[in-house]
């Protein structure tokens, strides 16, 4: 999730791995998604306009994947973690920051990931 600098680098790297069959790159910015897809020219890449705060929408897109990689700003961390749990997929987060009050809530979700045998 996220088509900023980190998301573009991650999708480019993954597109070159033979064991990676499909990459769904999602962001609220359709122009950024389309520009990156045009530049990357990978048949593995699927772009999807998506609101990171919409837990169910993100979960619906993530449910047929192995992992949700969060490359968006930290205010979306809780929503994306919850979306990964709903989808039943592993989760990687690349950033932590404001709102700092989310840290305890994020750590509490760790138990939910463990119960589902998902990596956080």
Automatic annotation (TrEMBL):
InterPro entries: NAD(P)-bd_dom_sf (IPR036291), Sacchrp_dh_NADP-bd (IPR005097). Pfam families: Sacchrp_dh_NADP. It comes from the Archaea. Residues 2-115 form the Saccharopine dehydrogenase NADP binding domain. This is Saccharopine dehydrogenase NADP binding domain-containing protein. The lineage of its organism: Archaea, Candidatus Marsarchaeota, Candidatus Marsarchaeota group 1.
């Amino acid at each position: 999730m996220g088509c900023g600098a980190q998301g573009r680098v991650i999708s480019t790297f993954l597109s070159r791995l033979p064991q990676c069959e499909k990459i769904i790159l999602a962001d609220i910015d359709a122009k950024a998604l389309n520009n990156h897809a045009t530049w990357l020219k990978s048949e593995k890449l699927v772009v999807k306009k998506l609101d990171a705060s919409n837990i169910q929408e993100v979960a619906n897109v993530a449910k047929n994947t192995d992992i949700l990689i969060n490359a968006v700003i930290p205010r979306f961390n809780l929503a994306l973690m919850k979306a990964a749990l709903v989808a039943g997929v592993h989760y990687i987060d690349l950033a932590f920051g404001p709102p700092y009050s989310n840290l305890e809530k994020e750590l509490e979700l760790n138990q939910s990931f463990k119960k589902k045998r998902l990596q956080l």
